[in-house]
């Protein structure tokens, strides 16, 4: 029996390559991805089950298996959606303020009860699952590309030296925050975020991130 959501799908919707952005299939995708994110945050990657996610989402198992095929495929799409839904970069006109905003956004995300648990689960899964690792790399590449113009514009304004590697600067802001989340267990608060941003700005102004040769 078709679920309420599936009953509204047009014949071609749900097949790979036929999903129309904003169409009815998009609503099914959003519901399934929300259920997958909840399950991942609660149970971790090893306990994910497509049938259980279908039950949580209120859609048929065949819809989930046909659309995503595997847990790794579903997690990859979840990361794609997270990258698409993430907040846009700051535009304050100051590299110090822009990178502070970036650090605080990362800090809020990692300390959010759902999002923090979700990221821990995905990172753990990426260690042993190549498809999840690839999806995680794409997620961070998307986010770094979103924020890199903050640094590029600072170079144009003369705030930072010519040749500064914008992507390396952005990576360096969040690195100590992820270290606190995954390794040290030290407090991951707004003060830690501000210190991370301030340290990177000081290093960038000193030319630490200038590409040599």
From TrEMBL:
Annotated TM spans: none
Compositionally biased residues, Basic and acidic residues: 1-15
Protein name, per record: TetR-like C-terminal domain-containing protein
Segments forming domain HTH tetR-type: 26-86
Keywords linked to the UniProt accession: DNA-binding, Transcription, Transcription regulation
Superkingdom in the source lineage: Bacteria
Keyword Transcription regulation: yes
Family annotation (InterPro entries): Homeodomain-like_sf, HTH-type_TetR-like_transc_reg, HTH_TetR, Tet_transcr_reg_TetR-rel_C_sf, TetR_C
Signal peptide coordinates: none
Pfam families the record matches: TetR_C_11 (PF16859), TetR_N (PF00440)
Annotation: DNA-binding region: 49-68
Stretch list, region Disordered: 1-24
């Amino acid at each position: 029996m078709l679920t309420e959501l599936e009953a509204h799908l047009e014949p071609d919707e749900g097949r790979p390559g036929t999903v129309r952005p904003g169409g009815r299939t998009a609503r099914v995708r959003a519901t399934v991805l929300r259920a997958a994110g909840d399950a991942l945050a609660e149970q971790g990657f090893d306990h994910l089950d497509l049938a259980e996610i279908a039950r949580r989402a209120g859609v048929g198992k065949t819809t989930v298996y046909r659309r995503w095929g595997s847990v790794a495929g579903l997690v990859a799409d979840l990361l794609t959606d997270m990258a698409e839904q993430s907040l846009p970069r700051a535009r304050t006109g100051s590299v110090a303020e822009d990178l502070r905003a970036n650090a605080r956004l990362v800090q809020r995300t990692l300390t959010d009860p759902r999002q923090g648990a979700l990221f821990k689960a995905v990172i753990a899964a990426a260690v042993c699952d190549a498809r999840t690792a690839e999806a995680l790399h794409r997620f961070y590449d998307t986010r770094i590309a979103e924020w890199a113009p903050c640094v590029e514009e600072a170079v144009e304004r003369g705030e930072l030296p010519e040749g500064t590697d914008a992507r390396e600067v952005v990576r360096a802001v969040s690195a100590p925050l992820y270290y606190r989340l995954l390794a040290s267990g030290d407090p991951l608060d707004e003060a830690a975020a501000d210190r991370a941003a301030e340290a990177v700005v000081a290093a960038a102004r000193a030319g630490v991130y200038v590409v040599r040769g």
